[in-house]
Amino acid sequence: MTAMERYTGTPKLMVPAFGLGVVGLVLTAVGFFMNPEATSFSYLLGFTYWVGISVAALIMLCIFHTAKAKWPIVLRRAMETISIAVPVFAVLILALIPMMKYLYPWVDGSPLAAHIHGIEVEHLAHKKAHYLNLGFFAVRQVIYFAVWIFVSHRLYGWSTQQDDVGGLELTVKQRKFSPGALPFLALTITFAAFDWLMSLTPLWQSTIFGAYYFAGSFLAAFCVLTLATVRAQGKDLYGSLVKTSHLHNLGKLIFAFTAFWAYIGFSQFLLVWIANIPEEAPWYGLRMYGPWRSVSIVIFFGHFVLPFFTLLSRKLKEKPGTLAVAATYMLLMHAVDLYWLIWPAFSGEAGPTFHWTILTAFVGVGGVSVGYALFRARGRYTFPVKDPYIAESLRYVQP
Amino acid sequence: MEAKVLDSWVLAEFATPEALVSATQQMREKGFQGMDTYSPYPLHGGSEALGLPPSRVPFIALGGGLTGMVTALTMQTWMNTIDYPLNVGGRPLLSLPAWVPITFELSVLFAAFGIFFGLLGLSKLPQPYHPAFESEEFRSASTHGYWLSIPHPTGTDAADVKNQLTALGATHVTVVSGENE
Known about the structure:
The complex is a heterodimer.
Chain A: H1 11-34, H2 36-66, H3 73-83, H4 86-92, H5 100-103, H6 123-127, H7 134-165, H8 169-196, H9 209-231, H10 244-275, H11 281-288, H12 293-310, H13 314-318, H14 320-342, H15 344-347, H16 357-377, H17 390-394
Chain B: E1 7-14, H1 17-29, E2 36-38, H2 46-50, H3 57-83, H4 96-122, E3 146-152, H5 159-167, E4 172-178
Antiparallel strand pairs in B: 1-3, 1-4, 2-3
Helix pairs in contact in B: 3-4
């Protein structure tokens, strides 16, 4: 069909990514011995940022399979490549073991335990101990990663097998498997968000919190997919096959999930704000008043108002250059959003502080995971060459 | 009331949407203007073949949405702080978070109104009569026919246009005249 060959794993991108990642992780480890508290929170920020994108890309892949969508097939290998990076996070999460007591007040012997002592709703901490304890926490992490690794490798295996043998049978398998996997993915990312982020403040709870973390990650995954697509120009890369309609669709999805993120974020806020009860209100109180107020305002305008009105433009979504700028910007805002979720648990009333390990952990986790994903993509085609519907995807023109 | 000159159109039926789009494209390249297409369902590539400018409906929708937003915020501010101030659970009278759901809904409603009425207005609908309806065969445009209309000076010979359309694959060609609003 085309003269496209297998991706040869050009080291131009993979080696610097790995190198930067390893340097970042080593520096973060050094930081941990200098300032374990701040470094633990930095590492959690970097970890949840990148693992969220990987898992969200997996959910995106399953949704497209479930919908039997044909237009994104040319982008599918890129989604699969992002999701196939998930085993690296199963290794990276081990670094949380020495960090647990610095992060979570519910851990026995945590220096943060004082934070939840002596306040009115302290007894809730005891009631939650059946869920929030190290043993069960560890079991849950094993379940999450088992599900994610199983689903991503199953789909990737079938998809790459189809590159050799073609035929409809493997497409049917992927389309039958994906809808069944979706409920498990939805539950695991929800509880992962509870475990990693919400339990930073164990007395606070919000049932929609998992959806909030998912919404931001899903948006970020579309941004990564967009950047990969725009940048994948050159020999054996699929970028040149992608047409204006595909880019426009990616832009529309970024726009849609910007609005979705805001919808979920506001739904969480409105109920807490209007009920105003002691175990819920302080979480927002800390972020709404005092030094965190400015960060909240930046997120409201920067993560929603500005991108919403900017992304209304059709021209912006159709041009690779401007769409890439928008995607990069949203990726940055997603980092600010996670910082806003995580960091107040560390610095509290002191407001938005900065620690250099935020950068090293972000680059470290990101570099290693991107490098690993590119490593896995070596020797494969950059799009599903023998998918029965690939021709329809390539000539897709939006209605 | 001044006397009106009758308008005329050459109507051509095509068997498939592809034939219609291709014929429209070619007739436009020959320099025909003011053409229109008729099909039982939305025609892929029809607007491009006709060379239509981008739709203005999105801007009307945006205007509607912003109108709804301003209306909702103004209405709730006036009601809750001036017209009927009421202390609900000790919240301030001006509690913007509580007004967001109404603001959202009204923005959506007004944007939808903008799309619906904007589209009707720009399409000059409803239009109970058009001279094209004089042609009995043209009724197939609402069931299975794909039609192209080309304005034609009334009273002059349309044989040339008809021949060109037939050459492009038209299965049926006719001329209608009438008073267009």
